[in-house]
Amino acid sequence: MHKRRRFKQTTSFEKRLSEFTSGERAKADSMPESMDKYELLKKLKQAETAANIDVWASAGLPPGRPRSGRVHER
Predict the structure, then answer these.
(1) Nearest alpha-carbon partner for 49 in 21, 19, 15
(2) What is the pLDDT of residue 61?
(3) Cβ count near 21 (within 10 Å)
(4) Which member of 7, 37, 40, 44 lies 3.0 to 4.6 Å from 31 by CB, making a disulfide possible if both were Cys?
(5) How many Å separate Cα 25 from the centre of its chain?
């Protein structure tokens, strides 16, 4: 059975995502249109989505509830 290698993160998830997106955004802006640029932009979008989910999860709200506590009528 394999043993998992574990290590403690020294920076917060939010900070790591922020550093990744800022560095990679500059890199993507300087790239010509190509599949590599498309893949990089796709990863950036995923990182931004992860950051949004992290904010939502850290707010301690149950899933599907609006932040204001009001139910929106349709």
Answers:
(1) 21
(2) 66
(3) 18
(4) 37
(5) 13
